[in-house]
Amino acid sequence: MIKVKDLQKSFGSLAVLKGITTEIREGEVVCVIGPSGSGKSTFLRCLNLLEIPDGGQIYFDSEEITDFQNVDINRIRAEMGMVFQRFNLFPHKNVVENICLAPLKVRKCSRAEAEAKAYDLLQKVGLEDKALAFPDKLSGGQQQRVAIARALAMEPKVMLFDEPTSALDPEMIKEVLDVIKELAKDGMTMVVVSHEMGFAREVADRVLFMDDGIIVEENTPDHIFSHPQNERTKLFLSKIL
Amino acid sequence: MDYTWDLSVIVRFFPVLLEGAALTIELTCIAVAMGILIGTFVGIGRVSKHKGISALSAIYVNFIRGTPMLVQLYLVYFGLPAYFGPIPPLVAAIITLSVNSGAYVAEIVRAGIQSIDRGQLEAARSLGMTYPQTMRYVLIPQTFKRIVPPLGNEFIALLKDSSIVSVIALEELVRKGSMIAGRTFRSFEIWTAVAFLYLFMTLPIARLVNYAERRLKQND
Question: Which domains does chain B have, with CATH numbers?
Answer without folding.
Answer: 7-219 (1.10.3720.10)
